[in-house]
Design goal:
Elements (H helix, E strand, L loop, with lengths): L1 H16 L3 H19 L8 E7 L4 H12 L3 E7 L5 H8 L3 E5 L3 H6 L5 E7 L3 H29 L4 H4 L7 E7 L6 H25 L1 H6 L2 H7 L3 H29 L8 H25 L3 H12 L2 H4 L11 H8 L2 H14 L8 H41 L1
Parallel strand pairs: 1-2, 1-3, 4-5
Antiparallel strand pairs: 3-4
Helix pairs in contact: 8-11, 8-12, 8-13, 10-17, 11-12, 12-13, 12-16, 12-17, 16-17
Length: 394
């Protein structure tokens, strides 16, 4: 029994002597608890952007707009005079609803012609689309009731009888991108792309750390002393192998009857930029931490919560600003936005440019830092090689 007790004490000492294990075992649950708790702390979705097309521009249409803006779930992002290019404007504003108030709306109500308000709901995100559509329906229902009661009361109809009539105008909801209402179609691509980033980071964690740890970095430098050349050699296999992962994912799409169709070139160059951004982020950590285990652990801390922080399921706008800042530093956040625009919402490829710029910025910063640190390590390895050659000559 005494021997077992000493062995247990020994294990505790070994555990706390390891510089990584205590941080990982205790720090990771604390970190993820704080992150995930703050992501969902708000509990409900508010201030969802909505684009309104006001073709009537009267006091009645302005009252509709004001009531929508007063609803805590909605926020009027833009008011347009016509329906021209509304889809791209809505995607640009991140709006899940486009509501159209028709021409002669006020006069048709006064003449009891029963005009129709149509609102288009982007169903690519089940949570936000449902919240927004319910909020719009509530506002329009309240508006209908108010108009009807006021109108009939002016005619001398008692309030209790006036309240039975609720149809001064019609309201019709049209759902778009409806296939994402299928939860498999909504979730599977996002999860698979998250796994793709995680697989890349796992491999990249070992790319340079393995060379440093096994002592083969000098051999690499003796064959390729140019840091640009080394980074190219390290990057190419991952880019090449990524093609097969994309083909595998395409096979999943065919198997599950998920037709992911979009313009080819925007998909190709956005995918390449995403892969390079992930590669350079992985290289930076692998060069900074010349230990395979530590590099892997750091990159897994980055990769594990990335799907939750990406805004793919829970809107980024509902998260605290400091979490949004962390999210913006993860390549997956921007690539999932690109994926949604191209494949689910069928938006114009020009709309992905801001997210591409963010990926380019992440990739460029990581590339420059990787290059600087790698150049220092290459120069150090060159000096050591020269000293070894001189020692051998002596």
């Amino acid at each position: 029994m005494k021997n077992i007790f000493h062995l247990i004490i020994r294990e505790f000492k070994l555990f706390f002597k390891n510089p990584v294990l205590p941080v990982l075992f205790i720090g990771a649950p604390i970190l993820y608890g704080v992150l995930i708790g703050n992501v969902y702390k708000k509990g409900s979705v508010t201030n969802l952007p909505i684009v309104i097309v006001d073709e009537d521009n009267t006091t009645t249409s302005q009252k509709v707009i004001q009531m929508i803006d007063d609803n805590e779930s909605l926020k009027v992002a833009e008011i347009l005079p016509s329906t021209f290019n509304t889809k791209d404007i809505a995607l640009k504003n991140g709006a899940d609803v486009v509501l159209v108030i028709p021409r002669n709306f006020q006069s048709d109500i006064l003449q009891q012609k029963n005009p129709e308000i149509v609102y288009f709901v982007n169903a690519s995100n089940t949570l936000t689309s449902n919240t927004a559509s319910i909020a719009v329906a509530t506002v329009l229902g309240t508006m209908k009731a108010g108009i009807t009661i006021q109108s009939l009361q002016k005619k001398g109809v008692p309030e209790f009888a006036a309240a039975q009539n609720y149809e001064p105008f019609k309201s019709t909801m049209i759902r778009q991108n409806i296939r994402s209402g299928n939860y498999l179609y909504f979730m599977l691509p996002g999860v698979l792309l998250t796994v793709f980033q995680q697989v890349l980071l796992l491999g990249l964690a070992l790319s340079f750390a393995q060379e440093f740890e096994t002592g083969t970095f000098k051999e690499l430098v003796s064959k390729a002393s140019n840091p640009f050349k080394i980074l190219f050699v390290k990057t190419f296999p991952y880019v090449f192998m990524s093609i097969f992962i994309y083909l595998l994912y395409y096979g999943f799409g065919m198997f599950y009857d998920m037709k992911l169709e979009t313009e080819l070139w925007p998909f190709i160059y956005s995918g390449l930029i995403f892969i390079l951004a992930v590669c350079f982020m992985g290289f930076l950590v692998s060069i900074l931490l010349p230990n395979q285990l530590k590099a892997t652990e750091v990159l897994m801390v980055v990769a594990t919560p990335s799907f939750i922080l990406s805004g793919f399921t829970w809107p980024l706008s509902q998260m605290p600003k400091w979490i949004q800042a962390i999210s913006d530093c993860i390549p997956l956040t921007h690539y999932l936005k690109i994926f949604r625009i191209l494949f689910i919402e069928k938006g114009d490829p020009s709309l992905i440019q801001p997210h591409l710029n963010n990926l380019i910025m992440i990739g460029s910063i990581c590339f420059v830092l990787s290059l600087i640190i790698l150049t220092i390590k290459v120069n150090k390895a060159k000096r050591e090689l020269r000293e070894e050659v001189e020692a051998d000559e002596v």
